[in-house]
Amino acid sequence: MDTPLLDAAFGFLVLCALCALFASLRGVSGALAPLLGVSTTMVYFTLAGVLGVLVPAFWVFCAGVLGLFCVLLYRRRAAALAPLFSPGFLLFFCTGLVLFVYYALRQPMFSQWDEMSFWGTAAKLLVQDNALYTTADTGYFWTMTERPALSVFSWFFQYLGAGFAPWKVYWAYALVLLACLCVLLHPFAGRRWRSWVPFAVAGLATPFFFTVPNHTVHMASTWLDAYGDLPGGLLFGGTVALYFMLAGQKSPAGGQAAGGATALLAALPLAALALVKDNIVPVALVAGGMLAVDSALFAPRRAAHPGGKAWTGQGFVQRAGSFLFWFAVPAAMYVLWNNHAAWAATGGGATNIPLSQAVGQALREITGRAPASEAYLAVRSQLWNNFLGRTAAGQSATFRVSMAGTPLVSCLFIAAVFLAALLLFKGRRERLRCAAAWVLGALGFAAYHFMLLVHYGFYSHQAGEVVDYSRYLTSYLSGWFLLGLGLFALAAGGAKTLRAVACRAAALALAVFMAVQCGRFVRPGYSVLDWPETTYAAARKQEETARAIAANMPAGQRIFYVCQGGNGEEYFAWHYHLLPAVLDYSYFAGRTFPLPGDEYYISVTRMNEYLYDTGCDYILIDALDAAFVRYYGSLFEDRLAGYAGGTALYHRGQNGLFSPVPLTS
Amino acid sequence: MKRRKPKLQTRLLLLCYAVFLLAWGVGGAVHMPGDARRQPQALSPGEAEMHNLALAQDGSFVTEGIDAQLVFSGIDAPVRTVRLRAAFAWDPGEMELFYSRKEGQGFSVRQRVIGVPQNDGSWLYTLPAGQVHALRLDPGTAGGNTVVIDELVLNPRLPAHSYFGLSLRWLVTMAVVPALACCGFYTIIELVLALAARRPKRAGAGGGAT
Lengths: 665, 210
Hints:
Largest sheet of chain A: 5 strands, mixed
Shape of chain B: elongated
CATH topology of the largest domain in chain B: Jelly Rolls
Number of helices of chain B: 3
Structural class of chain B: alpha+beta
Low-confidence stretches of chain A: 251-258, 303-307, 347-351
Order of helices and strands of chain A: HHHHHHHHHHHHHHHHHHHHHEHEHEHEE
Radius of gyration of chain B: 26 Å
Mean pLDDT of chain B: 87
Low-confidence stretches of chain B: 204-210
Helix content of chain A: 55-70%
Radius of gyration of chain A: 27 Å
Largest interface: A-B, 35 and 34 residues
Oligomer: heterodimer
Shape of chain A: globular
Distance between the termini of chain A: 23 Å
CATH class of the largest domain in chain B: Mainly Beta
């Protein structure tokens, strides 16, 4: 093993201590503590990163948490640790530990597109600079302004150690997923295992269920990718489920109902949710909306004085206040990050017009006030077809988004879970809340599609194309499902006698269905459970080569990249692996250089000027073609005659020409 | 009654786990004597019928389209496992092996197995026990992929530990299946008992026949 384990182990210890602190609060059980602990860490370090004080904040955080934990131990002795022995926390801790050992032994690596272009690179830059990647020198011509919550969370586990390990990033993400899933076990604290095992199984099957819609043909990256889509989705479900667990329900020990004040803790995961990913911000607003509506309509209120009504006067003010509060939390996080991104950004983005203008245009075309553009019509029809499961108009239903089936069938499956919860709840108020949650979820789903319509049809520079639809849908559906399952768990937790048995039977049926589907769809050798060593062989070799190159690179040197026939993926992979050495964007990021006469043709003189201006005294070549040799060969001492294919490194000598250097010293 | 139940529950759970472990152990070991008797048999790609594959000069194949096939006929021997060592230009995706039992019987989706990628880069196919007349190997799902077949062996000698496939997948299945099975038994028992407990109430309310 390259890098030590102690940094991650220490981080895990501090996280568990933080969970114990949360679990000591009235009404918060061991099952809710991981999500509160994880989201607090994410929000705290995001704020610290924005203020530019990550390292001092780390020490303050660890000292503070461990100090308070010692105080708690001193005051309550063994009772301080008792909530940690509930099924929810044990599931989080034991699965986290198993994955820690497993990932440390097998050391998976980044290998997919966006892991190289953003997520993995961001995590590596954080560990390298101990500062937010928004201010790092990346070689890109844009500033990386994607939201940092997941990246800073993984930094927390790597700050103390030397070097950077992708497996620790995967493990940090796994902790986020587990923290959301453990919320399901809150109603079963102190209950026998038969009550909660089906929910644990259904919960653990959820990530695969919503990310592997067809049987695996290639490696399924669930639990092994650094994309923010699945954590964002599960955080959505986990946040709202956590709120419902805390607000107005009897605590598991059967005592007083957890008051409104404890429900305010849901602001922590809600804030984290708004800081996960750009396209998750609308989802955070939907979550905020759900909490706002529920707290305004359903949360029990004590009247200001005997005989006072709960809807007028102070009751109304309280309701209005909490309604606004739940919208304010994600909005505040949105504004906070946007301000920081605006401050840090120096280059242009990928869009032409501001978002508000795109939204305005979309609304006008939808309502018919403006003539519908081709892009809008194409996107609208494709989104509708995709939702119904058709890949294009008229084709049979082949587009699946989850193990349940097409988007429409997946929504029906989720509705069935909500319906089961609704039927199994006892009181009218609980049933209304459950129904309201589903209705708001459906409205949110429609709003999410509106956002996708704006993005694909008006905002994206690829207007008219619908790409990555299943990934964006996974976020919303997995969260909506987790919320439904959470409500179902609440109903099961509060049920007695025959109703309880019915709950258990229904939960068992769901768990068996999901487990069987996972077993059928996730084939041996193609997932986190048993991937072969050859899966990451190429990535390991590339990292070894890159490390040798970077080790011999003087500080401040940049490398220019050439890969004729590439599509950009090779560029981002080298860029990630070569850090801390900087791989310049190199005009086209590894795509083919245009020929003379093309709009973007670059003369050899201009190329040479660029190489001097940017300080690129090294050129890394992955693939050449005759055109490149012909138009740019004069930059090289041997005119590239000695290039024998594969990866080659060239260095500018005293005579100004580039000559080959060995890749490894 | 309530005090006895937890003990019964624990015993039932342990029984479920024991049965499952036993089934896994027996299920793995049962193949060992048979495999030891069968001799490994190497197949040469040159003997095969090619469909949607072009043979290059250096002996490698290039797939043309998504349905490339190599068909080996006249095997007529019991085959339980097949190992393929091959190198591909890029990730070929799912590796399918179709088998037919009798002459004249075509290949169908019902008689197909998927290759499991192994740590050494090879694929292992496990067929249901029986006589095999012909095999159809589909080298991946991508067109334009270059395939170099190093080795194709029927009934290869497998290391002892591979019969018992220890992996995280095994651990998860081992943890989940017996627990769900035990939950299932208990839920059925509870459902029956709960429904039975309700009946006397209805009989009493109805004014009872006795």
